Amino acid sequence: MLDKKIQPDEKLAKIFELEMLRVNELIRERMSSENAPRIPEVTAHLIGAGGKRFRPMLTLAAARMFDYVGDKHLKLAATVEFIHTATLLHDDVVDESLKRRGRPTANLLWDNKSSVLVGDYLFSRSFQLMVEVGSLAILDILASASATIAEGEVLQLTASRNIKTDEATYLKVIRGKTAALFSAATQVGGKVAGAREEDCEALYEYGDALGVAFQIIDDLLDVEGSLENTGKNRGDDFRERKVTLPFIKAIKKSTKSELAFWEETIEKGNQIDGDWEKALLLMEKYDSIGATRKEAELWIQKAKLALENLPESDIRVLLTDLADYILIRSK
Amino acid sequence: MLDKKIQPDEKLAKIFELEMLRVNELIRERMSSENAPRIPEVTAHLIGAGGKRFRPMLTLAAARMFDYVGDKHLKLAATVEFIHTATLLHDDVVDESLKRRGRPTANLLWDNKSSVLVGDYLFSRSFQLMVEVGSLAILDILASASATIAEGEVLQLTASRNIKTDEATYLKVIRGKTAALFSAATQVGGKVAGAREEDCEALYEYGDALGVAFQIIDDLLDVEGSLENTGKNRGDDFRERKVTLPFIKAIKKSTKSELAFWEETIEKGNQIDGDWEKALLLMEKYDSIGATRKEAELWIQKAKLALENLPESDIRVLLTDLADYILIRSK
What we know:
CATH superfamily of chain A: Farnesyl Diphosphate Synthase
Strand content of chain A: under 5%
Oligomer: homodimer
Distance between the termini of chain A: 7 Å
Largest sheet of chain A: 2 strands, antiparallel
Largest interface: A-B, 44 and 44 residues
């Protein structure tokens, strides 16, 4: 239930408003290119479109939790947003998406080529920013996260349109495509602030569980719709034949004839009017939507448990509330 | 004139045979992915296709020049080859290429999606390898080179099919797409071996000039053909409407009616039988092919001059011969 009080994401945005202004300044400065004006055109379009800036905010919050004084965390927050933006550009090429955050995608406005190459540029720039921070431990975390992201995306490519995709594979995919950057974002925030090894691990656990929950809920919202406008239409994943958790849980329990339905619609892609409604009925029959939400709840619990290992602070309370809030989105 | 004696690239391959075996082993090991089997499929296809492995060899040669003992240079050589392979994968998507090194491209065998994402994976893996080497100075060089590569590629996107492209823009493009990795390859080889700052700069100068010459000659070969089989067909760039140096030099001197021809064929893309022959005649009329070769010669001279600042050694002699050999390819 959403009430009128200030939501935790808005609170975070308020607390880190000044720092986020500096992060945005850094982003604008570093995404420019004297030599290739196409670059700032494309990135300005994407970055101008907003988005909640969850990931850089997580870096700032983790650094604040350990009373970091300095400006390296700003570079890391910008790094995290650059990596995120680069993956969005490449995702939209891969998914042949037409819209992102309610606006036409870069691949539609310019072309796939620009999206591929500007994504590469942003990724390289993020890498330069990290090097400036001067910590090999942090570089290691972000390099591994980048590899996990790419691996998850490739795995998704072979897993999609495949109704044999199991929950373990689904988890690997979303760990890559979403959780890896969340966990790297929180972990490097702690690291740059000189947090102890076990605190950095707790931050990693929090980011990882939060990211997994975030993606499960995103996939859930695609199936059941949401109170707010997410810019997505109900049933997009079904139409794009993406096998997400609510589908996997229903397919697992299918009768022979139901299996034939999933084969026809997801694997072969022969969808007719009424198929989406039929898919929904099957998911309700096996309560796969409810089971998916329960799974998200478990990950949120895991995220909150990880926080309990960290020193008490206002930020910790806020990160706990943020975890709950992510879950509320799905109700 | 190619004679029967052993060419410098073959000599290099012979000298670094054992080290290159270890580099190849490292490449095979790091390009694998337990989670996403599509990854080694795609990369094995590309890496199996061979190529001269110029870039990693340059890193090994630069390290040997300063008597490096250790194995970090192997990781850097693998890094350089990974970055190169990642850019090839993305280039083939951007160019919509069907063949690379005489074999079908990955985007044709699998799909553009796989090429984009596997390229991202290789880039991330290269980044991990660099971090393992543990030198921020080296990370800085390779991060900057990556940004320059992406920038050059984006610039090429907006410069191609544009007959107003001038020589300065052409130089920026090829510095990015080719020379940046050559110069990073030589420079990090020196750096890892503990060479002095001025020696690293000389190595950079050599790699940069060699890379610029290499690309100019590649573009020249596309126009005038070659003695060996380069896997390219004469006139490919004209058909793909890429404005390379021999074209730029001819277009600059065009009469009004000649300019109309370039507009029609390159900008509008209306090419008919005989147009390629006409383009060749125009390039001969203004001796733009000869002028382009002269420019390549100047860059080769520049490369050899840079070597003179480095300590005398057998490797230095070989790198000098290599520069001459690159030029001979175009005769």
